[in-house]
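Before relying on records like the one below, remember that each one covers exactly one chain. Contacts with other chains, cofactors or solvent are not represented anywhere in the record.
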Amino acid sequence: MQFAFVFPGQGSQSVNMMAAYGDQAVIRETFAEASEVLHIDLWALASDGPEEALARTVITQPLMLTAGVAVWRLWQQRSARRPAWLAGHSLAEYTALVAAGSLAFADALRLIEVRAGLMQAAVPEGQGAMAALLGLDDAAVEAVCQEAAAGDVLEPANFNSPGQVVIAGTHAAVERGMALAKSRGAKRAVLLAMSVPSHCSLQRTAAGQLEQALADVSFATPAIPVLHNVDCTSRESAADIRQALVRQLYSPVRWAGSVRAMADGGIAQVAECGPGKVLAGLCKRIDERIQGMALHDLTSLEAFAATLEEPA
């Protein structure tokens, strides 16, 4: 049976988030490697927080990249089985490229550091916002964004699952969008604890600067296909991968489409590789052909590895 691995992005971080994997040497070594590259004690942040630090994009992004790579390396130690496809939500697309052998871990860390800084600088803190709208279909959310923008930026940012879409833009426009969405029948409209508005046109300037940073980094053909957020397809050439990462910064994350593409390609199981359970929980709501599971601790990781070794 074919399976895929997906990596969680911003929003899945929490204080002490790696404790559930036990005191695994490969976990600690991965964090030590990342801390040396970035000159930040990521293990202390992952273990002790504080929460407000973890919510800052410039901390969250390298932290979640490191967490995903650490769990991937733990998986490699515990199982010889490799997924047929990889994908990562937002910044975790870089995690997927590292796991696929396309991007060196150290290069990914430096790119994420640059990416986070550019995103933060593109929109001064407090001027942008993101909100999750629950209970409206994609078309209804797009209509809300068009009407509530009122000359500001307001756009769909994450198509996470049917009935769950995140919007991003200026703070005032997001608030107008939340109110309009509720009046149109949204079950909930929740402002997210994000320090920057991601995946909207407010990040176009940052994307242009990121393109320059990407030009200096080597990309190999992925050993495992990686589905990119912008269009739910994989790429092989370095130029195409770079362009997908540039577009990703100001384009919506088409997560529901990525999971459907996996199902259409014969994937039956999708395992979330990293702390948290958000992506695993979305799978069934996106496509009933997919079984989602979260490798959120050592027990679940070992249990999934064991099921793959059982005779069909």
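The chain has a mean pLDDT of 95.
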